[in-house]
Structures are given as structure tokens and as C-alpha cells.
Amino acid sequence: xxxxxxxxxxxxxxxxxxxxxxxxxxxxxxxxxxxxxxxxxxxxxxxxxxxxxxxxxxxxxxxxxxxxxxxxxxxxxxxxxxxxxxxxxxxxxxxxxxxxxxxxxxxxxxxxxxxxxxxxxxxxxxxxxxxxxxxxxxxx
Length: 140
Prior knowledge:
Layout: H1 3-9, H2 13-22, H3 29-38, H4 46-64, E1 67-69, H5 70-77, H6 81-93, E2 99-102, E3 107-110, H7 115-139
Antiparallel strand pairs: 1-3, 2-3
Helix pairs in contact: 5-6
């Protein structure tokens, strides 16, 4: 956002990585490795960095896809399907990502509304309507 920084960095690989992060795009392994190689030795914390990149990429997936299988997500992000599922489950449980996991289909559904939630809401409305009708009939 700062024009001075943009003027100095535009066209460099730093700029490309920062732009991808700012715009919520997926950072490929090559970008991540390049960034990690440029960091000073005392700043290198591979576990923290890899975790942050995985979480960034999961959030990026949530804006690009309505749903995706863990196998496809793993291929896209260069990780195992189990790692993708575990990381997504952790982020969902901590409230950092809006999604649901369908373990039967091995899918992650991004966003608030899922067919199951819509179904549950429909049943709830139906039950409330039936209660109101029964109450009305009891009064008559």
C-alpha cells in the first residue's frame, strides 16, 4: 500500500510474494523456498514459517473453492491429505476458517451454509410450524 515500498520492490520476487499474500493467492513451494532463503539466519524458524504458509494457503483455498477434496487440496498445496485435513480441522475449531469437513466424502466445504445445515434449518422450521398448529388446535 505504501508507494515508496512499491516503487522500490515492484518487479522483484519480493513484490510478487507480498502481492500474492496481500491478495490471498496460494503461495507455491518455489515462492516459499525463495522467501525462506532470503531471511536472515537468526530469523529462520521453519516450523513457524511452514505452519503460517499452510494456513495462508488454506484460507486462499477457501476463497477460490466452494468445496474441494483433501486429495486435490493436498496436491495443490504440496502436502499430504492427512496434513490438509488436520490443519483445516484445527483452523475450523479455532474459528479461523468458516468450513465444514465431510469425512465420508473426504471433502471440505467452505462457507457457512452446507446442505446439511440447510436441511436442519428446514426441519426446524417445519417442527416449529407443526407445534404452532397443534397449539392452535388445542385452544380451539
